[in-house]
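User: Show me a protein chain along with its predicted structure.
Assistant: Here is one chain, sequence first, then structure tokens.
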Amino acid sequence: MQITLGPSWFRELSSIGYVGVSFFFVLSGFILVYTCQGKSVNVMKFWRTRFARIYPAYLFSLLLMAPWFFYAATKLKFPLFAWATGHLKSATFLVVALLQAWVPGNALAWNSVCWSLSVESFFYLLFPLLLLVFARRSRGRLLFYVAASWTVGLAISILYLWLRPDGLSTTNSEVINAFWLNALQFNPMARLPEFMMGMACGFLFLHSRKNDKLAVSLIATGVAGFILVVRCGYWIPYPVLHTALLAPAFAAVVYGVALRPRFAQFLENRILVLLGDSSYSLYLLHTLAIGAFFQFSKSGFENPTILKTIAAVTVAVLVSVAVYRWIEVPGLRFLRPKDKRKPEIVAEPAADSVFAPVHVQA
């Protein structure tokens, strides 16, 4: 949806909302390292725990979206689901198996935001191996990994712009069926550098001491970089903006907040922690919840009022909290490996939990 209401800065920010996924990939790598805290990892237990953490809400979102997806793919010939229309059985299997991101034409099938979970599942698969690469590395080597990850991520985008394999003169978020552009945006290998940057920053953090001045510097630098890119977004090529460009800014903010500066202690408020825990469900269901609100309220979706927009977002947040309480938490308790000690739900945050660095108990 093209946002046409609100001040110019809000419209600029909303127009590049897709860069938030880069933030979550960086956060994911950081949090997984943070929760391990140098401990040995039981590979099978880790994989099973990650599955238990993400799949119940993921499956629930698919069930809710199933009527729309199958109707659109078979009756409407919806352009976004063009590949799924011709390969419906394969598309269904790939989405259920969290493999859709590997097929560029199918990455956005069913519940379009779920492509990032397909990417995350690949990160989870690699994580135990990547731990061996990052563990016990010097601070200098870890900083090199941060720089190298950013360089590789940018190089992939720049290579696309140079070669123009899709033959497109311009690219933007409205282009949905360009094979190589979709691969650049959604393929797990293309997004791996962002996750690896988060991991490197996580190991750097483990060797850090609480330092308010460093935290403030990191957060201020990251926010300044983000604001600069938002203001200049119109002139930045879409493939570069979509992927790794802002990863260092996001890494700086995550690192800074994890240092727990005094001014960020409000993030440990119970309500904000709950919202952070529920952010994964909000991500999965916000499109459906907001769309349903405007549909049932019979108000304009193309140009909504500010009050209607606030109401729609509020509904989406309440739905996400309910799904967290009654789908995510019970699913985690049921599916995760059994332990003699009482399971601590917040010790296994979703990669998309916004306030995870603040409240995770390792």
